[in-house]
Design a protein that fits this description.
Metallo-beta-lactamase, Chain A; RibonucZ/Hydroxyglut_hydro; hydrolase activity; 29% strand; Metal-dependent hydrolase; 7-stranded mixed sheet; hydrolase; alpha/beta
Amino acid sequence: MTVTYYGQSCVLFDFQGSQVLLDPFIRYNTLAKHVDIETLHPDYIFLSHAHQDHVADMSAIQKNSGATVAAIVETASWVRKQGVPEDKVIEYNFGGTLHLPFGNVKMVYALHTSSTPEGDYAGVPVGYVFFVGNLKIYFAGDTALTMEMKLLEDLDLDWAFLPIGGHYTMDVDDAIKAAKFVNCTRVVGIHYDTFPPIAIDKKEALRKFRENGLILHLPTVGEALSL
């Protein structure tokens, strides 16, 4: 099983043949200008919230791939308004778990805001925990550090995808605390470097994680990691 990073918070999981894309924002990201979204054919698209830097390419990729889109209820309503067929939209809410062919996906808390690219109400942001075989992966989405993360500490997570850019989300120092809250030593950084306010010092970030006994991965755009 692998994950490919496409910049900002966009990642594509390959769960032994099932392709699961999260928060597609590629064409409008200058760091990902070499990525052709026509090559992406996910089976599922999960949205953490509806801000444009997480949904900008949802419609185009869904139409090209026929993917099923999963999101919290209000964001799912916006997805339908983009022309995604009803049978290709899954709406659910906090505490809910989807039982899908590749595994289970639980919706968990995130502390942030959410609105559609048009500025309309889109519910609230979420995170997800993926249970695929023996693998357990936490995708935090856009979030500040929150005590609710400690509710995940007994899951024995294998990987945590955490925002580290600061300004709009957690920064590096808070992400270190978050990794300890969820009891996960392997972290993939997301939501950094795309815009000037969220630029980070990568060497400093790697050092801080290492000094705290944590492993931070900062893949380049288009790079795949084995899970």
